[in-house]
Design brief:
The chain has 174 residues and is α+β, with helices and mostly antiparallel strands. It has helices spanning 24-28, 33-37, 128-136, 141-173; strands at residues 5-15, 43-50, 56-64, 67-79, 82-93, 96-112, 115-126.
Length: 174
């Protein structure tokens, strides 16, 4: 773990669909808000747009550990079976607003010709802005990380099987 890494969390779930029917970027960038909300009670809103450089962007709004997050996920790798998104996300806490860097990686690999394993891998690290924000409040980074990790990990663990089910539904429609 790097000095300013907050969490590195990865969970898997089964997708009962053949690999050739799955298209994670298509799923992500056409995900209806109601479908996103159904993947976690913490999910508030979702949409998609383009970043200033024209890359696809998924906008997600959720709460984790009592903090509202607005995530601006820009596609850095978009293959049918592997999607990497990167965001400098806004975090609204009871003591103010800051940012966090999040890397979200979704992938599937075939188990057999009718089933795949989905992996939901989330890594976050403090931005310079967040470190300054914590310093101004006298919160040691290690203390913040220790408090944030269990909530972030629990969130990822809970949403992973629901994302897998949503990807499965999308794949079976194709």
């Amino acid at each position: 773990m790097s000095d300013y890494e907050i969490v590195d969390s990865s969970f898997t779930a089964i997708v009962n669909a053949p690999l050739d029917k799955i298209d994670i970027p298509k799923w992500c960038f056409t995900l209806r808000e109601s479908e996103y909300q159904g993947c976690s009670p913490a999910h508030i809103a979702a949409g998609f747009t383009a970043a200033p450089d024209g890359k696809r962007m998924s906008i997600n709004v959720e709460t984790i550990g009592g903090s509202l997050m607005v995530q601006h996920y820009v596609e850095t790798l978009g293959e049918k079976d592997h999607l990497i998104l990167e965001s400098v996300s806004d975090v609204f806490t009871p003591t103010g607003r800051t940012t966090i860097h999040v890397l979200w990686e979704l992938s599937v690999k075939a188990i057999d010709d009718q089933k795949c394993e989905f992996t939901n891998h989330v890594r976050s690290r403090a931005t310079d802005e967040m470190r300054t924000f914590l310093d101004r409040q006298g919160i040691p980074f290690d203390v913040f990380r220790a408090q944030r990790q269990p909530m972030s990990i629990a969130h990822n663990k809970g949403e992973t099987p629901l994302f897998a089910a949503s990807i499965e539904r999308a794949a079976l429609k194709n």
